[in-house]
Design brief:
CATH architecture: 3-Layer(aba) Sandwich
Number of helices: 10
Mean pLDDT: 94
Number of domains: 1
Distance between the termini: 29 Å
Structural class: alpha/beta
Low-confidence stretches: none
Strand order of the largest sheet: 5-4-1-8-9-10-11-12-13
Length: about 325
Amino acid sequence: MSDLITVGRVTMDLFARDIGAPFEEVSGFDTSVGGSPTNVAIAAARLGLRSLAFTGVGDDHVGDFVLRFLRDEGVATDHVVRKAGKRTSLALVAIQPPDRFPLTFYRDDPADIHLTVEDASDLPFDDASAMLLSGNAFSRGSCVEAARYCGQRGREAALTTYMDLDLRPTEWANPRDYGRTLREVLPLADVLIGTEDECHAALAPDVDALVRDAPLSDADHAALDERFDTLVGEGVVETVIIKRGSRGVTVITTSGREDVAGFEAEAVNTVGAGDAFAAALIRGRLAGWDWRRAARFANASGAIQVTRHGCSAVFPTEAEVTAFAEQHGGL
């Protein structure tokens, strides 16, 4: 039995040890496992949930590393599928605080995009409580249909399905495809999670949404607010969670909007903070907490994570998140 099934990519992550150094001057790396949905599975296990990762690795040594790491973290690996002749995805990260974290992906033909409906068919949907779908899982390969199947089966099994928008522009062949595809699959989700930029890219019907560098304008924000209200009001999704960094989050339900305050933290590495947030949000909801308390707990988890170096290797435990929140105003 699982509390949470996560669906989507996995990588072996190499994090630069030389914090602050330009990438070309990095002298060594620390290893861990990444990929947003699999990170959520790891972070959830740290918080005491029984998590299962549905993803793919190659028949290579990197795949061996990923499987060992996940098992050591208590994540169920029965449905991590080994794809013969494929390579496990790899990511390299440089750490240049306070706001630069250059990330290079090696995902030319990664094993996880070759997940199939057949691979997903024996997932324990009826014995789980929640599922997290990565928006990126709908980008390419047979994984697209596998992710759709998971969403449909989750509906049938009455799982609470969370969709993290998880925008990775390099995964999409055409910028228009991201928003067009995500808008089509949103009805598979009960809860939508994303940053303001991710929400704009997913919900704005224009090609520039994926590639723009300028901050969102007042008109963009107004249009987004209208789209959020429509999504919830028309029952496309039940809840929208908008991540706003240190400003906290906005929770939108049929009952209205609520801004939930964040926590101040000095960022060492922001990679993985959103995954720590999502895992803690799900943890709180599975505990029966209301949205405000669950979001506050999630904000605390994300705040802890940005102060640490190493992403999934250092996700906080439930005791750490609770203690941090109590020291900074409580939940």
